[in-house]
Amino acid sequence: MLQKGISVKGAKILILGFSFKENCPDVRNTSVINIYKELLEYETQPAICDPWVDKKEVEDYYGVHLLDIERIYEDKYDAIIAAVAHDCFKDLELQKLQSDNCVIFDCKSIWNKEVSDTRL
Which residue numbers delimit the UDP-glucose/GDP-mannose dehydrogenase C-terminal domain (predicted)? Predict the structure, then answer.
């Protein structure tokens, strides 16, 4: 983010996925909560979207509010993290989600290589 001139503090970051694995509602042992907490430590504004999981369960157990997939287009994000490879994320209109110089971290290689800034 810093290489693209994006201030980390206050950055809006969209995390796609919260479940333990793709196309599954199981949130037990999810490592995405660690990403979320780390981003909070850097004073970013992380938002999470996962249409597969029970929003109430996540709020009750983890204290995290999830965005509905329809609502993610209401904002522009400085960074987008593909944390879980749900099929529904493969066809997102990423350009409508990105702010100028948006960084895309494709942790699950769900998009073409040219789309992401870095991938695992």
Answer: 14-113
Q: What is the CATH number of domain 2-119?
A: 3.40.50.720
Which of 59, 58, 50 minimizes the C-alpha distance to 15? 50
Please give the model's pTM, rounded to 2 decimal places.
0.94
- What tens digit of pLDDT does each residue of 58-85 get? 999 999 999 999 999 999 999 999 999 9
Contacts of 62 (CB under 8 A, 6+ apart): 27, 33
State yes or no: pLDDT of 30 exceeds 90.
yes
Of 91, 99, 86, which is closest to residue 1 (Cα–Cα)?
99
CB distance 120 to 108 below 8 Å? yes
